[in-house]
Amino acid sequence: MRIGVLASGKGAGLRAILADGLDVSVVAVDRPCPATGVAADHGVAWEVVPRGVRTPAGRAAFTRSLVRVLERHGVELVVMAGFMTVLAEPMFERYGGRVLNLHPSLLPDFRGLHAVEDALAAGVAVTGCTVHIAVPEVDAGPVLAQEPVPVLPGDTPQSLERRIQEVEHRLYPATIRAFMAHRAPLRR
Ligand SMILES: Nc1nc2c(c(=O)[nH]1)N[C@@H](CN(C=O)c1ccc(C(=O)N[C@@H](CCC(=O)O)C(=O)O)cc1)CN2
Ligand SMILES: NCC(=O)N[C@@H]1O[C@H](COP(=O)([O-])[O-])[C@@H](O)[C@H]1O
What we know:
- This protein is an alpha/beta fold and 188 residues long.
- 38% of the residues lie in helices and 21% in strands.
- It has 6 helices and 7 strands.
- Strands 3-2-1-4-5-6-7 form a 7-stranded mixed β-sheet, sandwiched between helices.
- β1, α1 and β2 form a beta-alpha-beta unit.
- It is globular and about 50 Å long.
- The structure holds ligand LMY7XDAE and glycinamide ribonucleotide.
- The site of glycinamide ribonucleotide (GAR) has 16 residues, from α1, β5 and α6.
- Keywords: Purine biosynthesis, Transferase.
- Pathway: Purine metabolism; IMP biosynthesis via de novo pathway; N(2)-formyl-N(1)-(5-phospho-D-ribosyl)glycinamide from N(1)-(5-phospho-D-ribosyl)glycinamide (10-formyl THF route): step 1/1.
- Catalyzes the transfer of a formyl group from 10-formyltetrahydrofolate to 5-phospho-ribosyl-glycinamide (GAR), producing 5-phospho-ribosyl-N-formylglycinamide (FGAR) and tetrahydrofolate.
- It comes from Actinomadura vinacea.
């Protein structure tokens, strides 16, 4: 199954996906970011799709542009790895049930942009990460996999994020493989 990865940042999750040998056809980013360098280092096509104004119409136009890039590369499964823009309906009209996201908390706890900081501020002893099927509602949709991560005394957002990402970089590729094993490709 041909994978398209959506990213916005450092690309550590993307690097883990590529290191696992998954077939990534294209990396699409919503802003210039180091993830494109990770793609280039692995010989994977990448494109910057500027997200523009985040009005409903602007978000829909941005999402349609993303879909066109993914279709141009024959993508059948969309994998968000540190993607930081909320996708509009056109993505789910085209790839409904085949858009995955990785979130750095045990959803439904700590949804949104600041999950690591929020878990730390809440004083929980355990947080974690979640792989789920994305839907139009942010950080909702069916959970595919979760793994707990302890919060340790003296943790900073950075130290906790590092511990979570160690788990993410193993859990996400494994969950993507399991998902593909149970889904027929869109076309044979
Ligand atoms: N329709 C969906 N789009 C996205 C989902 C999703 O589940 N459904 N997951 C997110 C990833 N994410 C959390 O895991 C997340 C990313 C970004 C935001 C957000 O509020 N973004 C702002 C812009 C923030 C910024 O750039 O500083 C926005 O889009 O207005 C919330 C959750 C990816 N997309
Ligand atoms: N709400 C989405 C979110 O916070 N995603 C998180 O952003 C990080 C991206 O790292 P990367 O750009 O190095 O892969 C990852 O830890 C991922 O869980």
